[in-house]
Design goal:
The protein has 192 residues and is mainly alpha-helical. It contains seven helices and seven strands, in the order βααβββααβαβαβα.
């Protein structure tokens, strides 16, 4: 990250926030399918995955950032009433809306239980802004774990529109423990 070019935003956010963001990024890269994804001139950079930043709107996970940019992110309040957060996000969302055309939905993998994303993005995308219904009632780590599992299984979650959806609910049962692979068990026994 301290190089002149910096490091990819997706890698940095996954390192900083751990399981939660790693799950979102892995799942998004697995299932994003923007219009013309196979087109070399595609403005999405081959994936249609965008990261919401605290002061730079929507950015590709491959966008390189420096320590200075990361400090600027840390200094910004991610709140729907903060113009330095809201205005770049609105600009990026409007550009995305113009690029995707009328038949593409937008899947939000961030929190739908608070207005920091929902208020800004539903005003632009309307009922095309969707989220995994299985998120309702889950905390950050549970959502991250669920997304990682589904990406590994190749099983996309069902989505519903944010508008009109129940955004708060009872906590679902805990995810079952992952089975340890035979090679991991052998490795642990060897190292143990």
């Amino acid at each position: 990250m301290r190089s002149r070019d910096g490091a990819p935003l997706g890698d940095i956010f996954a390192f900083v926030s751990g399981l939660y963001f790693r799950g979102k990024l892995t799942y998004a890269k697995r299932f994003a399918s923007p219009p013309d994804a196979g087109n070399a001139d595609n403005p999405y950079g081959g994936g249609g995955v965008h990261i919401i930043t605290p002061n730079a709107g929507l950015r590709s996970p491959e966008t390189c950032i420096t320590p200075r940019a990361l400090r600027a992110f840390a200094d910004e309040d991610v709140h729907q009433d903060n113009a330095r957060y809201r205005q770049p996000l609105e600009k990026g969302a409007r550009s995305l809306l113009a690029e995707i055309g009328p038949d593409c939905d937008v899947i939000l993998l961030g929190s739908v239980a608070s207005p920091k994303y929902v208020d800004v993005l539903t005003a632009i995308f309307g009922d095309r802004l969707q989220f995994p219904i299985d998120f309702v009632g889950r905390g950050d780590m549970s959502r991250g774990g669920l997304l990682l599992r589904k990406a590994t299984e190749g099983a996309e979650l069902p989505y519903v529109s944010v508008l009109g959806a129940v955004l708060h609910g009872a906590r679902p049962p805990k995810l079952p423990p992952l089975r340890r692979s035979a090679s991991l068990s052998s490795e642990r026994q060897t190292l143990g």
